UniProtKB/TrEMBL annotation:
<dbReference type="InterPro" id="IPR011010">
    <property type="entry name" value="DNA_brk_join_enz"/>
</dbReference>
<feature type="compositionally biased region" description="Basic and acidic residues">
    <location>
        <begin position="1"/>
        <end position="20"/>
    </location>
</feature>
<keyword id="KW-0233">DNA recombination</keyword>
<feature type="domain" description="Tyr recombinase">
    <location>
        <begin position="1"/>
        <end position="99"/>
    </location>
</feature>
<protein>
    <submittedName>
        <fullName>Integrase</fullName>
    </submittedName>
</protein>
<dbReference type="Pfam" id="PF00589">
    <property type="entry name" value="Phage_integrase"/>
</dbReference>
<dbReference type="InterPro" id="IPR002104">
    <property type="entry name" value="Integrase_catalytic"/>
</dbReference>
<feature type="region of interest" description="Disordered">
    <location>
        <begin position="1"/>
        <end position="21"/>
    </location>
</feature>
<dbReference type="InterPro" id="IPR013762">
    <property type="entry name" value="Integrase-like_cat_sf"/>
</dbReference>
Length: 99
């Protein structure tokens, strides 16, 4: 499911690259970029995330809270804490188990 979503994203991004004038597109190593290829501005990402929450009737949460939710869900599904630690990039197992 994730691979399919990323492939669809890549197609949309390729279309954006084609639609942008050659001199305005910026190639970066990032998977998610602006419509002209530049890195996403954190404030814009946060604003967009909060707008989506509001539009769909969810309570306002911080974008970072999704990391905590991911850790909690993975641990509740029985994923080994060391694997979870690697997925989220924690440097110590204590950080993973604290969430």
């Amino acid at each position: 499911m994730v691979v399919d979503a990323l492939r669809e994203h890549e197609k949309r991004q390729r279309a954006e690259r084609t639609a942008a004038a050659r001199e305005t597109w910026t190639d970066t190593p990032y998977v998610f970029t602006s419509s002209v290829g530049t890195p996403l501005e954190p404030r814009i990402l946060t604003r967009t995330f909060h707008a989506l929450l509001e539009r769909h009737g969810f309570r306002k949460v911080r974008l970072h809270d999704l990391r905590h939710t991911c850790v909690s869900l993975l641990l509740s599904l029985g994923v080994h804490p060391r694997i979870v630690m690697e997925i989220v990039g924690h440097s110590a197992i204590e950080m993973t188990m604290y969430v």
